[in-house]
Design brief:
The chain has 343 residues and is α/β, with parallel strands linked by helices. It is built from ten helices and 15 strands. 50% of the residues are buried.
């Protein structure tokens, strides 16, 4: 069975990841593309031999598609995802999945009501070093986990967004949240995945101190506490102007893991008994290194639809990661530690 596919939003993330990965997947056929900028939709349609639309509602009315990728500004994620689900399609939505817990819950309800899959595109779970780190933590060989630091920073989306310095990423009414929504939510999802724990408390310093003329954050540092008492920091930044940093370090009773933190090895495991194991698992893909054309996100989404299996990052998982950055934002505004509700 070939899945008829539509991509709504033909900006950078669609051009460099979704469209390319769907084309490379033998189980999918790119049927339609949509973008409010007619020229952008036309170019994508020509390259991928797809019908073009400037109105997603018209697309959903005229095309019977099996799956839809939502690659739009953050404030449109919920409404367009729900429209696609109501139209009978499975949905892969870019992160952060929504701009509020309420929006996320409506997306989850729409998926469940219509019997469709909803997946959030948190690609860091598919990186080999991250999967290996999770495996090591789960094995218990590190003993008790004490602490961590996880970071995602680069010079900002103006270098790769299709609209450059005029990008929606910098506008609060469209993006809602800046570096924390672009990068921080990835690390929130990742550290939940590696540790296999939820977080109970968040303290955040969320600032705009690097870029002029933007209305969202570009620098954030957060403290997190997990349900078992693991403490750690999460940093998200558009102010790392010399090189991208996408590293995570886990500190534990019997050793430590350095993930994407060494120039030669994607994972370094150091133990208190003196053992050091270097893993060459391939470097994490980045925008700087030529794009992310083999993230595993699209392949996993397609496989989950074909096999009628729940995707690794379903709506519930996406919501939990979203709630961490929402709490960080709230903490930054109020100066108070925010408690995360369980469930």
């Amino acid at each position: 069975m070939t899945l008829k596919t539509a991509i709504v939003g033909c900006g950078s993330i669609a051009q460099h990841r979704h469209l390319v990965e769907y084309r490379n997947n033998e189980e999918t056929d790119i049927t339609a593309v949509c973008d409010i900028v007619e020229e952008r939709a036309a170019i994508a349609g020509q390259i991928y031999d797809a019908k073009t639309y400037t109105d997603y509602e018209e697309l959903f009315q005229k095309e019977e598609v099996d799956i839809v990728s939502i690659c739009l500004p953050n404030h449109l994620h919920a409404s367009v995802s729900i429209a696609a689900l109501e139209a009978g399609a499975h949905v892969l939505c870019e992160k952060p999945m929504a701009t509020s817990t309420e929006e996320a819950e409506r997306m989850i309800s729409a998926a469940e009501k219509n019997g469709k899959k909803l997946m959030i595109a948190h690609n860091q779970r598919f990186v080999k070093s991250h999967r290996k780190a999770r495996e090591i933590v789960r094995s218990g060989e590190l003993g008790k986990i004490y602490s961590f630091r996880t970071t995602f920073g680069h010079g900002g989306p103006e270098d790769w967004s299709v609209d450059g310095k005029d990008s929606w990423f910098f506008k609060k009414d469209e993006a809602f949240i800046g570096a924390m929504g672009d990068l921080g939510v990835h690390k929130a999802d990742l550290i939940r995945y590696i540790l296999g724990e939820e977080f109970t408390d968040v303290a955040g310093f969320v600032e705009n101190n690097a870029k002029d003329g933007i209305t969202v954050d570009d620098n954030a540092v957060c403290m997190l506490r997990s349900e078992s008492g693991i403490l750690g920091t999460l940093a998200a930044s558009w102010a790392y102007n010399t090189a991208e940093d996408n590293s995570t370090v886990i500190y534990a009773e019997k050793g430590m893991l350095r993930i994407e933190d060494d120039p030669d090895y994607s994972l370094v495991a150091s133990y208190t008994n003196g053992d050091v194991i270097n893993f060459q698992l391939g470097q994490i893909q980045s925008n700087e290194s030529g794009g992310q054309t083999n993230t595993g996100v699209i392949d996993h989404f397609v496989e989950s639809v074909l096999n009628d299996e729940e995707p690794l990052i379903d709506g519930h998982e996406g919501k939990k990661s979203l709630e961490i950055i929402l709490a960080a934002l709230e903490s930054g505004e109020t100066g108070k530690i925010q408690s995360l509700k369980k469930g």
